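Section 3.1: Structural characterization of target chains.
Under the original work plan, the team committed to producing a structural model for every single-chain target entering the pipeline before any wet-lab resources were allocated. The record below documents one such target. The sequence was received from the expression subgroup and is listed exactly as submitted; it comprises 222 residues.
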Amino acid sequence: MLHNKVERDGDEHPRDLRSRMRSRGARRVTALTAAATLALGVAVAAPALASDGPALHLTPDYSAPSSPSIDFVVVTPSPYDTAGAGGVFNVDIGAVAQNATGNKWLSSAKGYKPGILTKAPGIGHPDPFAPGLVVLLSTTPKKAGGPDANLAGVFQLTDVVKSDGGFAEVIADWEVGKAGAFGKGKKVTLIAFLVSGKAPGIVTSKVKPISSIVKETFTIGG
């Protein structure tokens, strides 16, 4: 299931889910303080990752399950928002189990746990606290791997909670630490989903998502 603005506006569930998660995310701002000074430049300056092919395209091999057991939502920014200012912005995303299978995928046994990274592994690496997370941004610099490079390794905060219905929710937050590293005043596309096991550093069309796929367009504030 590929969510976009049209589908979201016609479906109350993603908007309600985003609103509920956004209120929780606001309470985690204090926890981010220690990690927010992380220099994204360190990740960008890491050994360059090869990206010989064109930017990632959705193909029949790159599609969500017909009835995913995990629903994905971008909490912030919302579709078509102008996010942040001066090239600094925040991305808050969430994965929510829809059934027992989803709970199993998002369990501690699969590596999902709360944590704050004071030194994130960087672009092209999985998130140590959310190993199956894949996040792609269309303006990721070529020297850091380009649009196919997985950004999960620069997310600084991961939280794992249980909803009132007993379903697992994993929320991950990224505060960009280097102004303009992904552009200023630019329209960008973000794609996010989960895979089983450890996510790849460079994402190809052959990955097999286990969750719904979110694709949102927003503008990085200038």
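The longest strand covers residues 90-97.
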